Amino acid sequence: MTPSNAPATATEDRLYVLTGTCPSVLGSVELVTGFLFQRRCYVTELQTFDDTEGKQFYIRAEFRPMDDIDIEVVRNEFAEAASRYDMTWQIRDSRRPTRCLIMVSKYDHCLQDLLHRYQTGHLNIDIAAIVSNHPDLQGLAAWHGIPYYHLPISAETKARQEAQVWHLIEQTGAELVVLARYMQVLSEDMCSKLHGKAINIHHSLLPGFKGARPYHQAWEKGVKLVGATAHYVSEDLDEGPIISQGVEAVDHSFTPEKLANKGRDIERLTLAKAVKLHSEHRVFLTGNRTVVFAGHN
Ligand SMILES: Nc1nc2c(c(=O)[nH]1)N[C@@H](CN(C=O)c1ccc(C(=O)N[C@@H](CCC(=O)O)C(=O)O)cc1)CN2
Question: The domain spanning residue 26 has which CATH number?
């Protein structure tokens, strides 16, 4: 093996991810790996899934160019190859942080957790703004130096409030909206505009206990497991495609308050995991389901 073929010579700081999906057909893996090999792009991680029910194939390839390449040229060349397989694809710079806008009401535990992971570099995101229908968490945002927008909402002002939120999303260039315990239901129009770009944390193991008070519902049922669900937001409340879920054992001694205390930790971890998976381009949306290529760290 000549030294120039050794991965160590790959341009260390340049890392890209190719994600693609196409109808299940022979050659779909070679389409990607052969294309990258021919262009001396070293594959650092490769995951595939063939959905035999949907007859659909999914692939995610992370790669480092071994030579100084123009990624736009690579994209144009792959477009021609991918069209022969009817593949829907993207090649993205893995280092570029996902620009986020976080929405919250009064509970701060998920927001605190995301802010900590962001500040410590454990999430490849850029938090452009925090939006809330209450003033309560303004101090937390100020402490982190992030713009805070207090946009109150009522049934009468919902349409105008959502127009203000949408304006902020466009103004900040947010690519992902994170509902970190935002306790207002987004309209059908907002959900349509945010399809696949808004993640909500629901404080139960969906599809169980939908709605605003899942811990009380869980207590009434005497559950022995409590959980949380991170999902893409859809117009149907708590029905969106699930990205990640977490669960912990509980018992008869758990009051609704103790269930909520246990649940908060699960919510933090489950939402952070979903934001990480999305920001690393590891989640494919397929109808009301997801295909998730989990990472190793
Ligand atoms: N279109 C959607 N919007 C939102 C979703 C969603 O799944 N689709 N999830 C919620 C978060 N959530 C549960 O995870 C939730 C939030 C609020 C309610 C609710 O009934 N809210 C009442 C008002 C409550 C209040 O003012 O405190 C209401 O809107 O009438 C249910 C579930 C975020 N948005």
Answer: 3.30.70.260
Last residue of a domain, one of 39, 68, 93: 93
ipTM over 0.85: yes
Q: Answer whether 152 contacts ligand 1 (Cβ < 6 A).
A: no
For ligand 1, atom 8: residue with the closest CA: 237
Ligand 1 proximity of 73 Cβ (cutoff 6 Å):
no
- The reply to whether 109 and 75 lie within a common domain is no
DSSP the chain: --GGGSGGGS-TT--EEEEEEEES-TTHHHHHHHHHHHTTEEEEEEEEEEETTTTEEEEEEEEEESS---HHHHHHHHHHHHHTTT-EEEEEETTSPEEEEEEE-S--HHHHHHHHHHHTT-S-EEEEEEEESSSTTHHHHHHTT--EEE----TTTHHHHHHHHHHHHHHHT-SEEEESS--SPPPHHHHHHTTTTEEEEESSSTTSS-SS-HHHHHHHHT-SEEEEEEEE--SSTT-SPEEEEEEEE--TT--HHHHHHHHHHHHHHHHHHHHHHHHTT-EEEETTEEEE-----
Q: How confident is the model at residue 31 (pLDDT cuts 50, 70, 90)?
A: very high
For atom 27 of ligand 1, the residue with the nearest CA is: 183
CA of 229 to the centre of ligand 1 (A): 14
Instruction: Tell me the catalytic residues.
Output: 238
- Report the predicted TM-score, pTM, of the whole model to 2 decimal places: 0.96
Which range marks the domain in which residue 67 is found?
Answer: 16-93
